[in-house]
Amino acid sequence: MTSMRANGDRIKRVRILKATLRTQRDRLLVGIDVAKAEDVAQIRLAHTRIVDNAVPIPNTTAGFDTFWRRLERHQRATGCAEIVVALEPTGTYHQALAQFLDAHGADVVLVDNHVAALHRRLLDRTWDKNDPKDAHNLCDLLEQGRVLFCALPDEPMASLRRLVRLLRRARVELGACKARW
């Protein structure tokens, strides 16, 4: 497994992607609806056809490995040079998958939650929400280039963020305990 690319390099790459997503057809586009236990992905050949409609991805290292092997098979079969993945940020659940995919060489971008919600209603004019439909929605927004940069902090910064979250949670718990007393 290769290491994650620097954020500066990734920012340059996202700018190039945004400029060419609507025109280039030699990319494998992946939209992943992120959840706590299991993610759902849709895989498409850019502006051409859907390759895999609803692929379940367990949120484990083994599940990520299995999904990556599937992506590589599709990449060989279609002859695409690049894999671009769009995720809708859901708390911190998307971070492990984003880091895994970036470390394996895929370009990872985010789709704003509000934009995804508004676009979901435009797809078929219904209000229902399900994982395969959300993955399709993310792929559609990715094809249109409506994506954001996905900041992936390096390990010291990620550890610091985790510690700050734990400290905040401990302070809330301390306040609750004081209120109960």
Labels describing this entry:
single chain, 181 residues, alpha/beta, Nucleotidyltransferase, domain 5, 2 domains, 6-stranded mixed beta sheet, 6 helices, 6 strands, 52% helix
Report on this structure.
By secondary structure, this protein is of the alpha/beta class. The chain has helices at residues 7-20, 61-78, 93-103, 113-124, 131-144, 155-180; strands at residues 27-33, 38-45, 49-58, 82-87, 107-110, 148-149. 52% of the residues lie in helices and 20% in strands. A 6-stranded mixed sheet has the order 3-2-1-4-5-6, with helices on both faces. Helix 3 (93-103) links the parallel strand 4 and strand 5 (107-110). The longest helix has 26 residues, at 155-180. The radius of gyration is 18 Å and the shape is globular. The termini are far apart.
Give the helix/strand class: alpha/beta
Q: Name the overall outline.
A: globular
CATH superfamily of the largest domain: ATPase, nucleotide binding domain
Note the quaternary state here: single chain
Tell how many strands the DSSP assignment holds.
6
CATH topology of the largest domain: Nucleotidyltransferase, domain 5
- In which order are the strands of the major sheet placed? 3-2-1-4-5-6
The termini sit apart by 51 Å
Helix content: 40-55%
- Characterize the main sheet: 6 strands, mixed
